[in-house]
Structures are given as C-alpha cells and as structure tokens.
Amino acid sequence: TGTDEHGQKVEQSACKAGESPQDFADRVSDTFRALLPLYDFSADQFIRTTEARHKEAAAALWSALVESGDLYLGAYEGWYSVRDECFYTEEELVDGNAPTGAEVEWVAESSYFFRLSRYRQRLEEHILANPDFIGPASRRNEVLAFMRDGLRDLSVSRTTFTWGVPVPGPPPPDGLSHVMYVWLDALTNYLTALGYPDTEAADFRSFWPASLHVVGKDILRFYAIYWPAFLMAAGLPLPKRVFAHGWWMNEGEKMSKSVGNVVDPVALVQRYGPDPVRHFLLSDVTFGADGDFSE
How far apart are alpha carbons 224 and 124 in whole angstroms? Predict the structure, then answer.
C-alpha cells in the first residue's frame, strides 16, 4: 500500500495549509501509515510517489511510451476536475459538475498526449476475450459502453503547476516545464514496488503481472482503460484482473465532508476495536456493491 502524493490537488491543499507540497505530503502520508497498526494490517511495502525510486520508474515508463511512438505534443482545452484529477467531456457533466459531483474548471494549456485512441480495439478485444478481467460484470459492461464510441487521446502532462514528476528528456519545443499527469505517475507505483525499470528483478519476475487490482468504482476508468493501454504501449503484461468495489455509505448517503457525515476510521477503531470493524467490513458489505454503515 502507500500514498499518491503529486498533482494539482495536493499543491493547492498545501498552499491552503501554509506548507510546502513536500511537507504537506509527509504529514498526510504519515496519517495513512498510522492506520496500518491501528487496524492490525500488514504491508510488504509502503510506497510513496515522492520517493526517488518511484520517480525513476515513472520516468522509465514515460520513456517507454516515447519509444513506442505513443506520445506527442499538443494543446489541451476542456473541463478538468482538480478533486478527481480527471478530464471530462461536455457530455459527461451532470448539472455543470463532474459525474462524481466534483466541481470542474475550464483548462487550456500545452500538453503531451498519449495515443489512447490507438488502443481502443486492442483493449476491447482483451476485455471480451478475458471475461474475468474486469469485475463485477456490471462494471465490465460500463467500461465497454464507455469505449463503444471510441477513445480520445489522453492529456498526460501539465504545465500550469509544478508539483509532479518532471517529464524526462530534452526540453520540449514549447519551451515549458511539463510534469506528468498524476494518474500516469500514480499508477506506475505498482511497478515501482517490484523494481521497475529492472524487469529482470526477482520481485518483478515473481509478481508481475499482478493477480488482482482492487479499486474504487469511481476510478475504474483509470485502471481498466488508461493503465492497460499504458502497459500495452510499454510492452508490459497487463494485470490479470481489476475488481471495482462500491462505496461505504453512511445511512444511505455517500460520505462527504461538505455534508458532514464522514466516519472517522481512527475513532471507529478506538470505540469498537479493530476486529469488530474488520469483521463488519467483510461480512456486512457485499463485495462489489455499496455498503451501508450506521451506528
């Protein structure tokens, strides 16, 4: 496990807190790390995307995409959600917001693009040939429906802020400093943990491709479309399965800071103990569906 620590959202949050992005990331990462012993969890590694080894792995993956001919310099103009760190089309907006309810803003900037459109057919063929690649089946159908009308090339670098992994290589023709799109950076951490770019490393040979990615349903697009396409372009094997879990609801409502119904995971364990909470999560929440919590 670990923490994804780059992106515009982190930079803005650090500014509001009066901290540098690195100091802010250090403090927030520590709060997540502290949950492991509290819940009696164990982890072979705790990955932070601000680590030097991760920056090296992310740069290596970027270089692999350059070598495959799948990156080109262009300009992005459209809707972007800082909270989701996601680009949205006009058709995807709901009442002027992202499908998740997050606010969006109009962004126009120079950007490198990944040729995602090149991989639509290959991705679709893989999903259809491997029915268990995406679970549950309802989420698999959502991904196929999203891809049905084609895939647009994806903006994979930003120039309007600096908190990210610098794009490697010679200075681009636009003369601007680019940092990697946070999702390209963050997803690479699965490879970082196994020693990438050394694909002959013992851990890489033993544990990649991953047997399973378990992810939130609201970020399935990144794991079931973008991540496999990046891996295909880099000539790396795809994970064997991606499973989307639901949301943990509070008395039928999605948890939200603005609503004030967020359950504090620390207070919950302090009140009931780790075993009752772990038992509840595994026994009362159907895997793949939304679960409901009430005290």
Answer: 10
